[in-house]
Structure prediction request, 234 residues.
Amino acid sequence: MIKIENVEVTGWKHAIRGMRNPMNSWDKSDSTYINENWCDTSSQFALAEVCGGNAPMIGDADYNIMLRLAKAGSVEGKFRRMIIVYVDITAPLYWWKEFDTYKVGTVVNSCSTMHKIHAKEFTLDDFSHEHLIEFTHLPHPDFMVDPLEYTISHLNTARLLYLETGKKEYWWQMIQLLPSSYNQKRTVMLNYEVLANICINRRNHKLDEWRELCQWIEGLPYSDIITCNVWETC
Prediction:
């Protein structure tokens, strides 16, 4: 599973001003910035209502240049690096390990398993388990316990012992038994160039989380700037 929330997109004014520097064509810019940011609290953009004012309106002249430069590749389209996206993402650890591939141009603050792993009781909802197969059809009673629930039981036992005794050996049981399906929340700073690379390399990935993230990217403001190299929409 992947959960995407608290999205904010900013930097349009600076990106467009810098984009026009090579030709000294600032006077031809036709965009307006009553409010610099796009922001929302869900996966859908609520624009002016959430941001407290009108969202940026990118003019046709500016947008056509953006598309042309984006189509030319990451060097000519370097203005995309200045369009910043802030977002909270909750996803399993096995997905976050792959996300680290895109650490260039990103900043991440995560919830800490080191400090807070014992803060609450573990439940099934703390893990991504939508594709797990039920093992109740197996003939031997010893194998009729769901393996994830069995692990959660052990984690909670170690948690209680750690809370009661404070002994680090029980903390280690939680750290080393924690499955990679454990869902972790991180606040991430990205940019449109990083998102373009994600779309190119991950849109057909076998993990659902990557495909869902790419669908979210396609819903961002003026997303053709991101996806034109993928779908040839420039």
